[in-house]
């Protein structure tokens, strides 16, 4: 691993002030540090967000669950407040990676990285969440922009994520057994923004399955979701599964998510 400068600020303002050039914010480090070890990333500096208390914690108020960007997956999974308000979100967090990943990885880091097979983007898009940064608020539909690409601008930091509490929500994933990333993962919800269905693992980034959304708007049932044929066009093919295989999995998992909601 190459040499780099290291800073450990105690506030959002200090962290933003410390960022610059090709320095990177360090959240849980589960993706960034691995990339650095492999020579795939070589930032001149790391700005560690671990000491910033205002980036941590979970609150539920006015029909909204707000989670600080540096809250770990394990903390979300164990939160009684999240389990009561959005059980599917707690279930998703509790099945990310292994124990090390869940205890080190953070929701903000996952969203900023936007891995095409990550779980959290499906929950954010599937619930119509809002990502708050140090500069603005970004709707989920505008945040994810493709392979490892988001609407975040240079040195813009995620501060928190706000999820509207749905009437119903469910999550299912068909995981790659070694990494536990989603070969296909589907999050469904019925809430303030209507029916939303978000798919991860199947393409270059998380996306909404409009055909399944339309079917579930007419009938919130597993049969309605599983009756939709999803096109394989634009989906990923790799050693874990072809585009056609992933296309066939999407409605199956959507139906299971509805049944679990």
Automatic annotation (TrEMBL):
Segments passing through the bilayer: none
Keyword hit for Oxidoreductase: yes
Keywords: FAD, Flavoprotein, Oxidoreductase
Domain FAD-binding PCMH-type: 1-168
GO molecular function: FAD binding; oxidoreductase activity
Top-rank taxon: Bacteria
Pfam families: FAD_binding_5
Name of the protein this chain belongs to: Xanthine dehydrogenase family protein subunit M
Taxonomic lineage of the native organism: Bacteria, Pseudomonadati, Pseudomonadota, Betaproteobacteria, Burkholderiales
């Amino acid at each position: 691993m190459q040499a780099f400068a290291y800073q450990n600020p105690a506030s959002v303002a200090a962290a933003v002030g410390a960022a610059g050039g090709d320095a990177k914010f360090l959240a849980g480090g589960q993706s960034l540090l691995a990339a650095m070890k492999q020579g795939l990333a070589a930032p001149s500096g790391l700005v560690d967000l671990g000491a910033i208390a205002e980036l941590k914690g979970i609150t539920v108020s006015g029909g909204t669950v707000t989670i600080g960007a540096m809250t770990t997956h394990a903390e979300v999974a164990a939160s009684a407040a999240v389990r009561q308000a959005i059980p599917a979100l707690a279930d998703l967090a509790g099945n990310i990676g292994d124990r090390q990943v869940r205890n080190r990885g953070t929701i903000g880091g996952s969203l900023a990285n936007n891995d095409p097979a990550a779980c959290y983007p499906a929950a954010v898009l599937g619930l119509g969440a809002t990502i708050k940064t140090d500069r603005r608020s970004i709707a989920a539909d505008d945040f994810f922009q493709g392979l490892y690409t988001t609407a975040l601008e240079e040195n813009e930091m995620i501060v928190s994520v706000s999820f509207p509490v749905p009437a119903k929500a469910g999550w299912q994933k068909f995981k790659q057994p070694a990494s536990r990333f989603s070969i296909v993962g589907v999050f469904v919800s019925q809430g303030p923004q209507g029916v939303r269905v978000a798919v991860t693992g199947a393409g270059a980034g998380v996306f909404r399955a409009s055909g399944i959304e339309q079917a579930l708007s007419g009938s919130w049932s597993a049969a309605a979701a599983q009756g939709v044929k999803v096109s394989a066009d634009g989906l990923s093919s790799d050693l874990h599964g072809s585009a056609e295989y992933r296309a066939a999995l999407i409605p199956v998992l959507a139906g299971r998510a509805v049944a679990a909601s």
